[in-house]
Amino acid sequence: MSAASSTRPKAKGKVPKPPKAVIIAIAVVFFYALPLLHLPIISTPDSDFAGVLFTMAIYVIVALGLNVVVGYAGLLDLGYVGFYAVGAYTVAMLTSAHGSLPFLVVLPIAVVVAMISGVILGAPTLRVRGDYLAIVTLGFGEIIRLAATNSDWLGGARGVSKIPAPPSIPPNKADGTVTDPLFEIPHIKWDGIIPSIDDETKTRFLKFGVLDAAPYYWMALTVVLVVLIADVLIKNSRVGRAWEATREDEDAAEIMGVPTFRYKLLAFAMGAFVGGLAGALFATRQSFVNPQSFALLLSILFVAAVVVGGQGNRWGVIIGASLVVYLPERFREFADFRVLFFGLALMLLAIFRPEGILPAGRTRRAKAVEEELIAVEEGSDTDGAEAEVKPSA
Amino acid sequence: MPELIKDTPSEAPAPTPGAPILEVDNVTLKFGGVTALDGVSFDIKQGEILGLIGPNGAGKTTCFNVMTGVYKPTSGEARFLGSSLAGRKRFEITRLGIARTFQNIRLFRTMTALENVMVGVDAHSTTGVLRALFRTPRQRKEQAYAEKRAHELLELVGIEHRAHEFAASLPYGDQRRLEIARALATEPKLLCLDEPAAGFNPAEKVKLLELIRKVRDSGYTVLVIEHDMRLVMGVTDRIVVLEFGRKIAEGTPAEIRDNPAVIAAYLGVEDDDDAA
Amino acid sequence: MQFFFDHFFELTITGLALGSIYALVALGYTMVYGVLQLINFAHSEVFMYGTFSVVWVFYLFGAGADQSTGSLIGLLVASMIVAMVVSGGVALLLERVAYRPLLKKNSPKLVALISAIGASFALAEAMGLRDRIAGFLGLEGTLTKYVAGARDNRSLPTTITPDPLFKIGDYNVTTVDLLVIVMALLMMFALDRFVRRSRLGRGMRAVAQDPSSAALMGVNSTRVYQVTFLLGGLMAGVAATLYMIRIGTTRFDAGFILGVKAFTAAVLGGIGNLRGALVGGLVLGVAENWGSAIIGTEWKDVVAFVLLVVILLFRPTGLLGESLGKARA
Q1: Which residues contact A23 (CB under 8 A, 6 or more apart)?
Q2: Which H or E run includes C234?
Q3: What is the pLDDT of residues B139-184, one digit of tens each?
Q4: In a domain, A104, yes or no
Q5: Domain span holding position A302
């Protein structure tokens, strides 16, 4: 990749490599340190900030996965919570309800099960038109939740509890005695704007307990980074191009040799994979799952996170997901009005900034041109109607 | 279907000049009670430029869709390099070696010109998710090849300087050229152009003629559907004329020009029924 | 299974009644989709506001637990009119606030869907927070009856006792069953006539088929959109009244599941097709009842969605096909 692009003189205006790497490194360190810093204003006063950060990270994972489906492949999935639930329930089943496998063994099983459920749902439904896909997926999300509610084997309405935490390092003793951590990291406390080291609050490195959510956040953040890198690699390959071509013009893509159905199914399966991953992490942190955790509204929240941030732009999507979690937690004093404000915000955003907070770069640039062209094209759109008719056979 | 990537792609696929590469064999196509094509037969020979013409509604586009596998004929068949096209998926037909452009431009609007062409090159790529994830040497080789090839093709159609512009922002004429480059990128043995000159002024048409000849000279076989007689006469080696779903004439441009049935069809004379 | 055969007629008739309500709400989805190709996600709230209007009209007239048949009919007529006005008003508001700015900008569908989802949340929550909102306005005291327990179920103060009318099989068809089904059919017939015969109806069909040509022919598309939303709202108001007669209880989030069902009904029948909404609603209502009798009530919603998936797979455009534009005059 680098060989090809460096021979091209076109790639001007790029930040030279070392500073870029440094910026990324600083950003990564900052995000890992966030739960320890207790930053004034930013931190949520009414709820455990590390816990909020964990939820944000989970939503970011979900949004990145859903972005593949909605943003890249252009498939509107309103039942994404279904895959999230499949991931969480697989963990619950195999670690607590019907088995006692360790979390790390179950995690890959959970994502594979989620991915398979994505293929099973996608194979018949991806052939139907886009708008119908929305309602079929909505139905799927609801079926998963109802199945969990109504099936005793899946824990019924009460759900499943005692889902084990991820293994601590060094491992705790078999009888449950907590061993000493490798080391402890002190937090920062603030006196006005003056920070100092808080010797009393410490996070036990890589010890997954109930009280301190920071280790869970680090685990989730690590997953975010892995998913993000995978996202970049796939998007900048043939696969990403095929998705984009399919989204732009399915017939033309097919005729240019893109097996569009396969690529749509692939997007669906990958989205399910990531959704299941997020669900599995959620289950192990929460230590219990019940059907109420996977209400249909959550699916809509996920789609909102993607669209609010700017579908197709991974950074925008990350911001969108973070805001969807962060704002309600930060402004807990208005807790009752959260959903009302959220609804109004969605509406205003759609009206005044429809491309999202951070629109995909190309969308931004292409938009101006496109608006000009719309008028010119409207006349010629119908000419090809004959060629578009699908053969009956 | 894995296909080896050539570092120096030969621009002349399957060199047996004169052998038919696509045969339309007695094709009849009915939609309900309407006969859109009625026993049409002709073939396209390796290395030629064939024109398919006819007045509006003569069945050119329908015929084209049979040739590219979009429609399945009611009887008869279209064969490409000896094998039937009926029932094949469209992307498979592309991989077999038929590429087309669209009468109404259908580019991937939010992708750059280069990326549009790369989608075409990808038709023969074997990269999947796993290889993309691990950036295997093979994936990198394919990616580099796709970029290089795409630049070459943009160069060939003369819009290399616009490689990094969005397809939607290209001027109309360049969009048509980009469509040709994208179709060529799938390494077709047969390139089908559906009214490539639609909306062009005479000066642009001349340039297009040059481009089509250049493409042919690079070793591609070309099928042109057009109703602009001047353009067709100027560029094709042979012409097939359709009217009301039937073939009424076939021959060199000179022969077609003097064919009374064709003249009748174009001038709308009534008694052309027994001319075929 | 035995239960299913024993109660076959009851399940079918009550299913038809339930289905009629789905169908009336489905009309709102189907018309907006037919004309605008948008899923009007907030239509469920239009319906929900209608149900509350009915409850409030009963409060307003101080209805007690028992009402004579005459006064009950009067109350129901009054509340249906109010429900239609309120639902129609909410639908118009929705068009004005959540859709028109986007339609003007030619925004992508997904954005309009997000706007509708936002509007849906906001409307539902405004209802769920009506005690707090009344508190801000200092009206809590005066409006206690209407705003107390904003997040709890609200029921009609009057018990509507269905009287048995005649027997079909071994099931006594009641006044309520009959009223719901006949009323729904009447409204749909009227709407169908309107869309087929009136000038505005022609405008709707024209915009549905080809917005730009319709505009060229002098159809005022904004007016058409307004009428589309208004009609959907009116139908939802009727549906809300029938729903309250039959179910008797509502809640600030009662619209959601019913909305999803109604949309399913619309897709089932062929979205954009008015008669399809009727067929889809009835099929869905009956199938749900049968399905829950056979495999258990808790699977009722699953039956609905599985039915939808199966039908879409074998008939991708729904039972009757999609065609508001193609509805023959």
Answers
A1: A15
A2: helix C221-246
A3: 888 889 999 999 999 999 989 998 888 888 889 889 999 999 999 9
A4: yes
A5: 46-167+208-373
CATH number, domain B18-97+189-276, options 3.90.320.10, 3.40.50.300, 3.40.50.12280, 3.40.50.720? 3.40.50.300
CATH of the domain at A125: 1.10.3470
* C244: its two tokens: 């309250």
Is residue C33 less than 8 Å (CB to CB) from chain A? yes
3-class DSSP state of A320: helix
Alpha helices in A151-259 (DSSP H): 214-235, 238-248, 250-255
Among the partner residues B90, B122, B169, nearest to A242 by beta-carbon distance: B122
Backbone angles phi, psi at A139, to 5 degrees: -60, -40
**Tokens representing residue B110 in the block:** 């939010």
Rg, Å, chain A Cα set: 23
At position A282, the amino acid (one-letter code) is: F
Residue A2 resides in a domain: no
Domain-located, residue A191:
no
Q: How far is CA B250 from the centre of its chain?
A: 19
Across chain A, which has 393 residues, the per-10-residue mean pLDDT values are 42 58 90 84 76 92 94 88 94 89 91 94 80 79 87 87 83 72 79 76 76 88 94 91 91 90 93 96 91 84 84 88 83 75 84 76 52 48 39 39
Give per-residue burial for C177-203: e unless 16+ CB within 10 Å, then b.
bbbbbebbbebbeebbeebeeeebbbb
Residues of C in contact with A342 (CB under 8 A): 118, 121
> Which tokens go with B132?
């993309």
> A26 — contact with chain C (CB < 8 Å)?
no
- Any idea of the CA torsion for C22, C36, C275, C269, to the nearest 10 degrees? -60
CA distance A202 to chain C (A): 41
Helix (H) or strand (E) holding A34: helix A17-37
Q: How many CB pairs under 8 A join A and B?
A: 150
Sorted by sequence, the CB contacts under 8 Å of residue B254 that are 6+ apart come out as none
- One DSSP character per residue, C150-210 reads TTS-EE-SS--PPPEEEEETTEEEEHHHHHHHHHHHHHHHHHHHHHHHSHHHHHHHHHHH-
Residue A154 belongs to a domain: yes
Enter the tokens of residue C255.
Answer: 């619209």
Helices (H), B12-96: 60-67, 90-96
Nearest to A256 among B129, B144, B182 (CB): B182
- What lies within 8 Å, CB to CB, of C28 at 6+ separation is C40, C43, C46, C47, C91, C231, C232, C233, C235, C236, C262
Q: What residue of B is the nearest CA neighbor of A1?
A: B140
Q: For chain B, where do the domains classified as CATH 3.40.50.300 start and end? A: 18-97+189-276
Contact of A259 with chain B, judged by CB distance below 8 Å, is answered with: yes
- Residues A208/A50, Cβ–Cβ less than 8 Å: no
A250 vs B: CB within 8 A: no
Adjacent-strand bridge partners of A393 = none
Does residue C326 surpass a pLDDT of 70? no
Note whether C44 and C85 are within 8 A (CB).
Answer: no
B39: left (phi over 0), alpha (psi -120 to 50) or beta: left
Kindly give the pairing relationship between strand B49-53 and strand B221-225: parallel
Measured in residues, chain A has a length of 393
Separation CA A214–CA A208 (nearest Å): 9
H or E segment at B194?
strand B190-194
Residue ranges of domains in chain C, CATH in brackets? 2-145+165-314 (1.10.3470)
Number of domains observed in the structure of chain A: 1
Q: Which pLDDT band, with edges at 50, 70 and 90, does C288 fall under?
A: very high
